[in-house]
Write the structure tokens for this entry.
Amino acid sequence: MTHTDRVNNVTMEAGQLRQWSPTVIIRLPETVDYRYEELSGSYPMVNPALQYPIFGPEIQCPHCRQEIPALTLTDTYLCPRHGAFEANPDNKELVHLQSGRHWRQWEGEWYRQHTHPDGIRFEIHEALDRLYTQGYGPRG
């Protein structure tokens, strides 16, 4: 008698099945362990809402505002231009993994969380420059 493992697409004889039946542990965002026997064929039912990070299946990249997808069964979003962002469900922040910068969402926009006064000064000057190029400037 043979058995085909649907996960790895491997066919095994009955004698081999008794020797090889590991337990697989899947770590979901809710930190719940779903344990099942790989060879039993009983796979856990996963709520589709638990497959994505806390901000949903896609968000706007905080840098380029391009729609970026979530990686299924992780807390990560992946921008092709700026890399990975990890969503922290505890404090509802988004962390850019490459730079370590933290972002928070407010009224649908991402705002960077500054840890040093020079960072906020730079961002204020950038915003003022952007307003000035749009025609808002000192009158006189």
User: Anything to note?
Assistant: Residues 14-40 have pLDDT under 50 and may be disordered.
